[in-house]
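Appendix C reproduces, verbatim, an entry submitted by the partner laboratory led by Prof. M.T., so that reviewers can inspect both the input and the predicted structure.
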Amino acid sequence: MLQARDEHGRRVRNPKASALSGMVANLGRGNSFVIVERVDDEADGDWYVQLRLRDDNTYQLEYRDGTAAEHYQTRTVSQERVIAALSGWAEGRPDWKDAFMWNNISTLFEDAD
Protein backbone atom coordinates (compact mmCIF):
# COMPACT_ATOMS: atom_id res chain seq x y z
CA MET A 1 0.00 0.00 0.00
CA LEU A 2 1.08 3.57 -0.63
CA GLN A 3 0.51 6.50 1.65
CA ALA A 4 1.09 10.20 1.08
CA ARG A 5 1.44 12.65 3.94
CA ASP A 6 2.34 16.26 4.42
CA GLU A 7 3.73 18.36 7.24
CA HIS A 8 0.22 19.16 8.50
CA GLY A 9 -0.38 15.44 9.02
CA ARG A 10 -2.82 15.05 6.15
CA ARG A 11 -2.67 11.45 4.92
CA VAL A 12 -3.96 9.95 1.70
CA ARG A 13 -3.97 6.19 1.12
CA ASN A 14 -3.06 5.02 -2.37
CA PRO A 15 -2.91 8.60 -3.68
CA LYS A 16 -3.84 9.37 -7.26
CA ALA A 17 -2.30 12.16 -9.35
CA SER A 18 -5.08 14.59 -8.42
CA ALA A 19 -4.50 14.14 -4.67
CA LEU A 20 -0.73 14.52 -5.07
CA SER A 21 -1.21 17.62 -7.23
CA GLY A 22 -3.38 19.16 -4.51
CA MET A 23 -0.86 18.34 -1.81
CA VAL A 24 1.96 19.94 -3.81
CA ALA A 25 -0.17 23.02 -4.59
CA ASN A 26 -0.79 23.48 -0.85
CA LEU A 27 2.89 23.58 0.09
CA GLY A 28 4.13 26.72 1.79
CA ARG A 29 5.46 28.03 5.08
CA GLY A 30 4.49 25.58 7.83
CA ASN A 31 3.63 22.88 5.31
CA SER A 32 6.83 22.40 3.36
CA PHE A 33 6.94 18.71 2.47
CA VAL A 34 5.09 15.76 0.95
CA ILE A 35 6.22 12.16 1.40
CA VAL A 36 4.85 9.26 -0.62
CA GLU A 37 5.92 5.92 0.84
CA ARG A 38 5.33 2.25 0.48
CA VAL A 39 3.84 0.95 3.70
CA ASP A 40 4.48 -2.79 3.79
CA ASP A 41 5.38 -4.65 6.97
CA GLU A 42 6.75 -7.60 5.00
CA ALA A 43 9.36 -5.71 2.96
CA ASP A 44 12.71 -4.74 4.43
CA GLY A 45 13.99 -1.22 3.82
CA ASP A 46 12.48 2.16 3.12
CA TRP A 47 10.84 2.94 -0.20
CA TYR A 48 9.71 6.51 -0.69
CA VAL A 49 9.82 9.70 -2.69
CA GLN A 50 9.69 13.02 -0.89
CA LEU A 51 9.38 16.63 -1.86
CA ARG A 52 10.35 19.74 0.08
CA LEU A 53 9.56 23.30 -0.87
CA ARG A 54 12.69 25.23 0.09
CA ASP A 55 12.79 28.83 1.31
CA ASP A 56 14.13 29.92 -2.10
CA ASN A 57 10.96 28.48 -3.75
CA THR A 58 12.79 25.58 -5.36
CA TYR A 59 11.64 22.01 -4.98
CA GLN A 60 14.03 19.47 -3.47
CA LEU A 61 13.01 16.01 -4.62
CA GLU A 62 14.47 12.84 -3.11
CA TYR A 63 13.86 9.14 -3.39
CA ARG A 64 15.08 6.09 -1.55
CA ASP A 65 15.11 2.58 -2.99
CA GLY A 66 15.27 0.42 0.11
CA THR A 67 18.60 1.37 1.67
CA ALA A 68 20.64 4.45 2.51
CA ALA A 69 23.05 3.52 -0.30
CA GLU A 70 20.19 4.09 -2.76
CA HIS A 71 19.15 7.60 -1.69
CA TYR A 72 19.09 10.29 -4.39
CA GLN A 73 18.30 13.99 -4.61
CA THR A 74 17.63 16.67 -7.21
CA ARG A 75 16.20 20.19 -7.37
CA THR A 76 13.88 21.98 -9.74
CA VAL A 77 11.70 25.06 -9.97
CA SER A 78 8.98 23.20 -11.89
CA GLN A 79 5.88 22.28 -9.93
CA GLU A 80 4.58 20.33 -12.94
CA ARG A 81 7.70 18.17 -13.08
CA VAL A 82 7.57 17.30 -9.38
CA ILE A 83 3.88 16.41 -9.60
CA ALA A 84 4.66 14.18 -12.59
CA ALA A 85 7.53 12.56 -10.67
CA LEU A 86 5.46 11.90 -7.53
CA SER A 87 2.57 10.54 -9.58
CA GLY A 88 4.85 8.41 -11.75
CA TRP A 89 6.57 6.91 -8.70
CA ALA A 90 3.21 6.19 -7.06
CA GLU A 91 1.95 4.53 -10.26
CA GLY A 92 5.14 2.47 -10.62
CA ARG A 93 6.08 3.93 -14.00
CA PRO A 94 9.73 3.10 -14.77
CA ASP A 95 10.42 6.49 -16.43
CA TRP A 96 9.23 8.68 -13.53
CA LYS A 97 12.74 9.95 -12.72
CA ASP A 98 14.05 10.44 -16.26
CA ALA A 99 13.35 14.21 -16.33
CA PHE A 100 15.99 14.93 -13.68
CA MET A 101 19.73 14.69 -13.02
CA TRP A 102 20.03 12.80 -9.71
CA ASN A 103 22.80 12.98 -7.11
CA ASN A 104 23.44 10.01 -4.84
CA ILE A 105 23.43 11.41 -1.29
CA SER A 106 24.03 8.12 0.50
CA THR A 107 27.08 9.51 2.31
CA LEU A 108 24.71 11.67 4.37
CA PHE A 109 23.21 8.47 5.81
CA GLU A 110 26.24 6.23 6.30
CA ASP A 111 25.53 5.73 9.99
CA ALA A 112 21.78 5.33 9.51
CA ASP A 113 21.63 1.69 8.33
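The mean pLDDT is 91. Additional entries are available on request from the coordinating office.
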